[in-house]
Amino acid sequence: MYKCSKQRMEDKIKTMSKYGDAGHGGVTRYTLSQEDLQARDEFVKRMKVIGAEIKTDDMANMYATIKGSSPNLPGIVMASHCDSVRNGGNYDGILGVMSAMEALETIADEKIPHKHNITAMIWTNEEGSLYPPAMMSSGVICYDYLPENIRKNFKHENMLLSKSVLDKTVTFGEMLDKNKYKGDKKNRLNPKEYSAMFELHIEQGPILEAAGNDIGVVTCVLGMVNYRIRAFGQSDHAGTTPMKYRKDALYAAALAIQQLHNELDKLAPDLVYTTGEILCHPNVHTVIPDMVEFSLDARHEDPKVIEGVVKAIKNLPEELAKCRIESEVAWTRDTVYFNKKLVGYVQEAVDELGYKNQKINSGAGHDAQFASYMMPTTMIFVPSKDGHSHCEEEFTSLEQCVKGAEVLLNAVLNLDRN
Amino acid sequence: MYKCSKQRMEDKIKTMSKYGDAGHGGVTRYTLSQEDLQARDEFVKRMKVIGAEIKTDDMANMYATIKGSSPNLPGIVMASHCDSVRNGGNYDGILGVMSAMEALETIADEKIPHKHNITAMIWTNEEGSLYPPAMMSSGVICYDYLPENIRKNFKHENMLLSKSVLDKTVTFGEMLDKNKYKGDKKNRLNPKEYSAMFELHIEQGPILEAAGNDIGVVTCVLGMVNYRIRAFGQSDHAGTTPMKYRKDALYAAALAIQQLHNELDKLAPDLVYTTGEILCHPNVHTVIPDMVEFSLDARHEDPKVIEGVVKAIKNLPEELAKCRIESEVAWTRDTVYFNKKLVGYVQEAVDELGYKNQKINSGAGHDAQFASYMMPTTMIFVPSKDGHSHCEEEFTSLEQCVKGAEVLLNAVLNLDRN
């Protein structure tokens, strides 16, 4: 049972928080941006210090590996991402990378014997903030996206509003091609050279904190549906069109959002659903909107509940406030259950360490979810203060970060021994 | 009592509709754009044919004048604009310009005697689509804006979403400086050289059509208020935040919009109000919105009703769905009554011509409203099919357009005689 270095972990957190520092406690670190490169350079610098071998693949995913005593056995990977959302926090993704670094640094520092090669990995573009979709690289490598199409992806139109990126309207492929960490396709994560993947991540919710636990032993990633819902009205002049003649798409959308809230609240207490994005055309204060589109994201472990969500969407009236309503499924995901053997090693490690813990599921999508389609995979959660994430208030205490790294390290060593 | 040329009017409508043709029946003709310049060139070409003298001022407003028999008397102006909203129609603004041209062409063609100089005028940037505010030039020249500040105005942020203008993020002043029609400040419309202004415009509403009238004798421009209403929530992860912990600013905004509809519908049957613009931050489908702002535009002749609107906004709860609600007045305008004498000349002309007509007020703002602060001013409306405007369905029949031009011509001649 091995411990990690609090001081070394603190130094990594402080250093990484500088890269993309938005000036008020959080970071904006888009994938493949200058800020992202600073974080990757830091990763390379520290991994070289412990003698790790650095490789990168054609999606600019990065692998830092220390050899085991039986280097021909398939290796063990600890991975997460270092990109962030706009005005994100200092822990989402990057903490998983720092914990993997801390685990390798501990192994090197204490010369912990291990048979398998052990790798700390960075996934490119997990957030998809600038170039949708999220979890792009793990999707490309482990799942069924077509890289050639992904490369053509443009910035999210919403991002055009962000002055900082207005001047670089390039595709993901162009960004990738001019990135110094773009490497060889043969270096991709694959089930021949690697036998398992662990990902430590912040919970991004309030459950562990509310229960007073420091570690979440993750068992699954919740199933979800993502819909686009549109209201079609008629653009007319705001000052000259009597109310009775109007077809106001924004008013129709407001009614639809409220009706969805009323219906979905009846389905299950632990269902989560979000209307996070809204687009309005022409979006001018003197013109009645003729088209409004908004997103609906809903997540739950039980497919029956997700079916109920789809039913509620389908049950929206064909017309609200004289506007035609239509809905379209954007994407769906079935609940992904993690590898029972690996979940067991995590539970074993946290029990040995004696940290307060619980089984938990992940409402958020992670690269681990796609990786699990390719090889045995599991996750470890640490608490998020007040449950906040994807914002600058995001916080996990140093003690909790170190406990997480220790659980990761010992779970990996448990697997190594068996 | 003089008539205009249907064939000549039809030719103007067909020609002007080509400049900015968006390919599906309407135009996108932003002020000072290439398309706008094409329309202005057409104006110059046709006005030179009838021997009009062309002048432009420092806001690129254009004046085509034919001399009267007493050229030292203050002249009479017929004015409107040739810029459009995005995907606008073929009549808003440009019909007023074409009617002024038609009136001058008729006077020249039939050698109609007149004492006063008579001017056809184009106002720059009435729509403010690309460079807010609307009615910029008349505001600068007749009202109380500061031109130097106006020049610094950037594109409406919303316009950044329009790929076509992404490459030219310049200020209005820069656009103006490189425009060949920018002229001398001394040529501005002024109450010494000019005695009155008439503006013909489409109604942009369904009232004339519903009453079967061809002409609206406009008596006033409705008073209005324009508010920005904001909801402040908390950004958290869409998949990991239980519903009871959420502060969803978009849901709060949807509730606020519905509450406003419920309250404002009680105030007056002819009150018009619009929530035409909505901005959501960060506007990502996987993030709970932390800030949503929307516009509220309300218009009515009676200040008591407008007071009721303000009261309803102030009465919004301080908190909706655990989100703080705040409102801020963007701008207001009192009802503007047009010059009774000029309104009389318009009524006289339409009665002589025997066209079906009614008194009507204008819910839309027009340059005439600012001009009326400087000199006697009035307006003439023609019907809008199905009341549609600020959209490509905008339509007024050729017969109605010609009738409008004839009322404009004869009203101007009535004033000339008195």
Automatic annotation (TrEMBL), chains A, B:
Cofactor annotation: Zn(2+)
Name of the protein this chain belongs to: Peptidase M20 dimerisation domain-containing protein
Cited SUPFAM superfamilies: Bacterial exopeptidase dimerisation domain (SSF55031), Zn-dependent exopeptidases (SSF53187)
InterPro entries, per database record: Amidase_Cbmase, Bact_exopeptidase_dim_dom, Peptidase_M20, Peptidase_M20_dimer
Record has Metal-binding as a keyword: yes
Pfam family, one: Peptidase_M20
Annotated Zn(2+) 2 binding sites: 92, 127, 390
NCBIfam families named among the record's database cross-references: hydantase, PRK09290.1-5
CDD domains cross-referenced by the UniProt entry: M20_bAS
Species whose genome carries this gene: Johnsonella ignava ATCC 51276
